[in-house]
Structures are given as structure tokens and as C-alpha cells.
């Protein structure tokens, strides 16, 4: 009987001190591990660099290492490859997608662009390389306002795919960008009522929310921004308690760097099945495991490959973002 991929990886790693073996292999192969804040704590602990999507892109562009393992989701690994095309970019699980990236297909964006001549396209970094190839400038939640503020005031703009982020940026910049109707299944599940319930229990807590949350959630948040914005606010604040409306993986770094503070994750209102649940995790981010990191380093596979014609176009709006932010 054929073994599943999971069984094969399990056998490969059985009885090993995986963290030590991974670090050893990184040294031997001149590889670095990049991890997003939403990955499991064990991966964040062995990573060379942990960050938000903007910081990870910057790191990928500047590293001297021969190889990098991007522990995050597929579009993040693609961004690394676009910025470092000569390097080997490994992705522990190619199935680690993103509901937000899935909400904007390149062919649909192409059609929308054709229907709106004269418009520039601003794409959130949570998009495929094919979508980036149709884009004028990429943004992350950490730099979207700064980038949009630098575009000509009379520019006609399309923003996608995250509706909530685009709506917020319209509000804070006074723009009237046309918004794509996409969203993240994790962030759209946070509700005002759950946050207010927590606020009753912890009246002194600061409410922090990621910009992918819906407008009513952002309206009651004291701090709104990217994962890195929330983290650095907590690190610099005098406050002791924080209610956190984003993927719960970030609590690992918050608690590690601020051990004397209390971080309270917001449970979502409803699950995908329609039932109330306590799951505020991105299942794609959680596909990264120590076993898969070990296996991909050992096998130097799976690697990210991008059609060179798409890559040539897709890297330009990312480079433009890095220049403007
Ligand atoms: P950040 O850019 O804040 O890291 O967010 C990435 C992301 O996927 C949020 O869901
Ligand atoms: Fe994509 Fe949402 Fe997961 Fe972020 S949390 S990677 S936007 S699915």
C-alpha cells in the first residue's frame, strides 16, 4: 500500500530532535528560515527571522543565504522568489494557500481592468504572482496608507482583493478607490459583540484589530494595523492587557516579548460551519510543521517556481512598494 505524504514525513523524522536537526541543516546548506507571526510557536522559535508580510518581503530581498524556507503561506513564498529569483525558495507545504488570495483570480481582475480603462491597480500582497503581474503597486497592511498617500490625488484607483482594508484606506486617505469584494475567512469572523463581551470582563484592556477585520470591528478598536503594528504597540505601551482581534498565532511573539502582559485572543462569532466556535486560526498557516520544514530542507523540495514571463511583470509592483514604503 502506498504511504501518504504525512506517513513518509513522519517516518523520516521519527525519534529526532527536529529543532536541532533543522538548525544544523540550515548551517550546512546556507539556508535561512523565515516565519510569519501566525505560524506555530515551535517554528517561530527556530526561525532566523519572524515578521509580518512586509518585513518578510524585505528580508527575502536582502538575504545573502543560498536558500530560504518560507514558513507562511504560498503567496509569501512567491513574493520571496520574485524578490530573490536566483535563490532556492522552499515552501514546507504548497497547499498552504490563502482565502483572500483565492478571492481574486487573475482572469477576473483582467476583465475588471478592461472594464475600467485609465485605472491603476493597487493589490494587497495577499495575491498570486499572476494577479501581481496585472498590478501597478503592491501594498501590505503595514504600508497601504503610506503608499496610497504618495499616488497622485486625481489618480483613478482599483484596490483589491481585501474589501475591509481597502475601505479603511479610503476612509483614512479620503480616496474613492474602487474596491474588490474579497476577504479573509479568519478576520471576517471577528465580531463587535465578542469584543464587547471581553471588554466587560477586561475594562482596561486595549483593543487591537488587524485591518482585514470588518469596519464595525475596526471602529471600536483602539489600535488598528498590521500584525507588526499591533506587536510593536504592545511592546511600547504602558498598558497591561490587550484584546487581540487577529489570527491567534501572533500571541506567541506577543507573550514571548512581553511576558508581564496579558493578551486575550478574540474568539470568532461563527465558524465556517455556521456554529459558534473558538477557532481563530488560519488553517493554511498551521500547515507548516517542524516535520515538513525538516523534510523540505532535506529534500530541497517543494521549491517555488514561477513562470518567468509572469515573474518579470509581478516583481515590478513589489519593488515599487519597497521604494515607496
Ligand atoms: P500582515 O501583513 O499583518 O503580516 O498580515 C498578513 C496576513 O495574512 C493577515 O491575515
Ligand atoms: Fe490569508 Fe487570512 Fe490566512 Fe492571512 S489569515 S494568510 S489573509 S487566510
The H/E string reads: HHEHEHEHEHHEHEHEHEHEHEHEHEHH
Alpha-carbon distance between the termini? 53 Å
The helix content, as a percent range, equals 40-55%
In CATH terms, what is the fold-level topology of the largest domain?
Answer: Rossmann fold
The portion of residues forming beta strands comes to 5-15%
**General form:** globular
Total domain modules: 3
Number of strands: 12
> Which residue ranges are poorly predicted, with pLDDT under 50 across at least 5 consecutive positions?
none
Instruction: Enumerate the strands of the largest sheet in spatial order, edge to edge or round the barrel.
Output: 2-1-3-4
Classify the secondary structure makeup into a structural class: alpha/beta
Architecture per CATH nomenclature, i.e. the level-2 architecture of the largest domain: 3-Layer(aba) Sandwich
Q: Say which CATH homologous superfamily of the largest domain is assigned.
A: NadA-like
Q: What is the class of the largest domain in the CATH system?
A: Alpha Beta
Mean pLDDT: 94
Amino acid at each position: 500500500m502506498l504511504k501518504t505524504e504525512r506517513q513518509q514525513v513522519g517516518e523520516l523524522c521519527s525519534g529526532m530532535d527536529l529543532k536541532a536537526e533543522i538548525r544544523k541543516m540550515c548551517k550546512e546548506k546556507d539556508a535561512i528560515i523565515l516565519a510569519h507571526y501566525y505560524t506555530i510557536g515551535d517554528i517561530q522559535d527556530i526561525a532566523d527571522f519572524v515578521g509580518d508580510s512586509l518585513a518578510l518581503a524585505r528580508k527575502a530581498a536582502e538575504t545573502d543565504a543560498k536558500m530560504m524556507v518560507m514558513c507562511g503561506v504560498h503567496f509569501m513564498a512567491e513574493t520571496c522568489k520574485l524578490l530573490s529569483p536566483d535563490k532556492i525558495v522552499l515552501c514546507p507545504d504548497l497547499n498552504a494557500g490563502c482565502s483572500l488570495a483565492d478571492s481574486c483570480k487573475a482572469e477576473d481582475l483582467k476583465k475588471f481592468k478592461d472594464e475600467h480603462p485609465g485605472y491603476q491597480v493597487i493589490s494587497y500582497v495577499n495575491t498570486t504572482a499572476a494577479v501581481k503581474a496585472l498590478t501597478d503597486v503592491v501594498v501590505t497592511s503595514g504600508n497601504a496608507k503610506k503608499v496610497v498617500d504618495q499616488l497622485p490625488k486625481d489618480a483613478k484607483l482599483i484596490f483589491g482583493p481585501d474589501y475591509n482594508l481597502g475601505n479603511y484606506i479610503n476612509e483614512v486617505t479620503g480616496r474613492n478607490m474602487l474596491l474588490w469584494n474579497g476577504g479573509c475567512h479568519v478576520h471576517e469572523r471577528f465580531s463587535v459583540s465578542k469584543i464587547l463581551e471581553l471588554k466587560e470582563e477586561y475594562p482596561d484592556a486595549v483593543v487591537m484589530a488587524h485591518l482585514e477585520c470588518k469596519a464595525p470591528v475596526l471602529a471600536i478598536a483602539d489600535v488598528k494595523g498590521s500584525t507588526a503594528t499591533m506587536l510593536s504597540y504592545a511592546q511600547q505601551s504602558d498598558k497591561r492587557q490587550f484584546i487581540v482581534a487577529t489570527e491567534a498565532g501572533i500571541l506567541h511573539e506577543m507573550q514571548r516579548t512581553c511576558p508581564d502582559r496579558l493578551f486575550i485572543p478574540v474568539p470568532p462569532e461563527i465558524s465556517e460551519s455556521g456554529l459558534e466556535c473558538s477557532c481563530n486560526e488560519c488553517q493554511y498557516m498551521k500547515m507548516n510543521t517542524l516535520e515538513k520544514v525538516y523534510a523540505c530542507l532535506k529534500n530541497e523540495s517543494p521549491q517555488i517556481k514561477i513562470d518567468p514571463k509572469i515573474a518579470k511583470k509581478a516583481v515590478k509592483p513589489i519593488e515599487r512598494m519597497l521604494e515607496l514604503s
